[in-house]
Amino acid sequence: MSTELEPILVLSTDLPDPEATHRFGVELGRILLSGDTLALIGPLGAGKTHLARGLAAGLEVDPDACLTSPTFTLMAQFPCREGIFYHLDLYRLGHESALWELGFFDVLHAGGVVAVEWWDNFLDTLLPSTLVVRLDLVPERPEARTLGIWTLPADGWEERVRRLRALGLR
Prior knowledge:
single chain, 170 residues, alpha/beta, Rossmann fold, seven-stranded mixed sheet, globular
């Protein structure tokens, strides 16, 4: 029997439109603390960057900051109430060695809040404390998304997830 902990689904909800995705990101951003890491996963066009904009708003990043997908810059950083909000996109990286060149592992331990799009391309580098947020397309409703959040048992997210559920999210 494996001694590794299995991630558990701690929250799932339907997001009917991009505005709901953004609002969810804002609420999630409000409960984030320095040292938190999030893996934002899902197919192209699922709304990962839109969610990250909401996270930035909840973290009180300057609203004039231009938060766009860092697909080509790979990493962007913004001052926020928890120090720095790091937004990374690993979509174009082909090998784990590129993570070292990017300074990825340094960022994970630098404090602040780290949100990483396409971290699922490098699953073996996930930290045990990472909150995994998955967005999926809903084929019959083009504007809608399904959202699921996974975490490991006893990793410190329980109370904060309860706060999200109190907002009416399952």
